[in-house]
Specification:
5-stranded mixed sheet; 5 strands; 37% helix; binds FE2/S2 (inorganic) cluster
Length: 152
């Protein structure tokens, strides 16, 4: 059975196995390789995308569960919060190897879209599932605060 869904504002259709993880569809079928594969078991956050505005680990979501929903990947981020996050990430030179950063930015953006002035606890909660092997956590926190401060 075909699955129809929206990715970054475009209607998409997937005709394969409905249990195929969303991440495989995004990367292998649609060629959107900004979303990364890390653990494959919803433990690292590298594969985070937004589904209907909420962060979701795409490695562990079967495409069947995405039918009729709106997916945003790192390539499609365009909200004021997303732009503030991207600007702060560059200004504070957050990235080290970069592998985890797509997921970090997706989680940070979802947080600021929902709450422009998050507390430290909000940040801890929102970012807890995103692992960074390069330990850029301090810069990530500083960049979220800088992005927050730049939003009205
Ligand atoms: S690859 Fe999805 S959470 Fe690690
Ligand atoms: S920047 Fe290298 S894993 Fe996070």
């Amino acid at each position: 059975m075909a699955v129809n869904f929206d990715v970054n504002g475009q209607q998409r259709r997937f005709d394969g196995d409905p249990q195929t993880p969303l991440l495989w569809v995004i990367r292998d079928e649609l060629g959107l390789t900004g979303t990364k594969y890390g653990c494959g078991i919803a433990q690292c956050g590298a594969c985070t995308v937004h589904v209907d505005g909420q962060p979701l680990r795409s490695c562990s979501a079967p495409i069947a569960a995405i039918a009729g929903r709106k997916v945003t990947t790192i390539e499609g981020l365009a909200s004021p919060a997303a732009k503030a996050v991207q600007k702060a990430w560059i200004a504070l030179e957050v990235v080290q190897c970069g592998y985890c950063q797509s997921g970090q930015i997706m989680s940070a953006t979802a947080l600021l879209e929902q709450k422009r002035k998050p507390t430290d606890t909000d940040i801890d909660r929102a970012m807890a599932g995103n692992i960074c092997r390069c330990a850029t956590y301090q810069r990530i926190r500083a960049a979220i605060k800088a992005a927050s401060a730049s939003l009205a």
